[in-house]
Amino acid sequence: MGRKKVKLAWITNDATRRTTFEKRKKGLVKKVSELATLCGVEACLVVYGPQDAVEAEPEVWPSPAETARVATRFNSMPEMYRWRKMTDQEDFLRQRVAKLQDQLRRQDRESRELEVSLFAHEIMAGGRILDDADLNDAMGLMQMIDLKLKQPNPLKIQNMS
């Protein structure tokens, strides 16, 4: 059974906020640990607690020495490799918008093809006449006919054998 959707907003109750922080931090440590184990990668985690926390030191996983080693190794990589697959919120949103625009263009094209196909069928069935077509319908119909004429005819291929 899935969990209910959590509203992402500031938790005003201090005790609830601390409890939620600790639970989420524990889950995050578990995920990083599983990622490192299952995928055989080096990983580390640095989590700073709330500003009003008694301990000013961040919590690190797996250990401070190992975390420092992984961070040093990362920082010693050439910048080209270090930033190759990193993305920030702006880049992520830009990529998402581009992907959605591409999907919209594809849907528009498919919708137009269906409209033209329906128009052609209505003409052939006698429900409409070609004089009813506006410039867009006529151009779309002409493009569809050109495409159909360029496609190989399966009946001709079967008859040739």
Structural class: mainly alpha
For the biggest sheet, the summary is: 2 strands, antiparallel
Provide the gyration radius in Å: 30 Å
The run of helices and strands is HEEHHHHH
Low-confidence runs of at least 5 consecutive residues: none
Widest beta sheet: strand line-up: 1-2
What's the average pLDDT? Answer: 85
The percentage helix is 55-70%
Beta-strand content estimate: under 5%
Straight-line N-to-C gap: 58 Å
In total, how many beta strands? 2
Q: Count of helical segments?
A: 6
Number of domains: 2
Quaternary structure: single chain
Give the overall shape. elongated
Describe the structure.
There is one protein chain. The protein is built from six helices and two strands, in the order αββααααα. The chain is mainly α. The chain has two domains: 14-82, SRF-like; 89-160, no CATH class. α4 (89-125) packs across α5 (135-150).
A few lines on this structure:
With 161 residues, the protein is mainly alpha-helical. Helix content is 64%, strand content 4%.
Task: Describe the secondary structure blueprint for this structure.
Blueprint lengths: L13 H26 L5 E3 L11 E3 L2 H13 L2 H4 L6 H37 L9 H16 L3 H7 L1
Antiparallel strand pairs: 1-2
Task: Quickly list its features.
161 residues, SRF-like, 2 domains, two-stranded antiparallel sheet, 6 helices, 64% helix, 4% strand, RNA polymerase II cis-regulatory region sequence-specific DNA binding, DNA-binding transcription factor activity, RNA polymerase II-specific, DNA-binding, MADS-box domain-containing protein
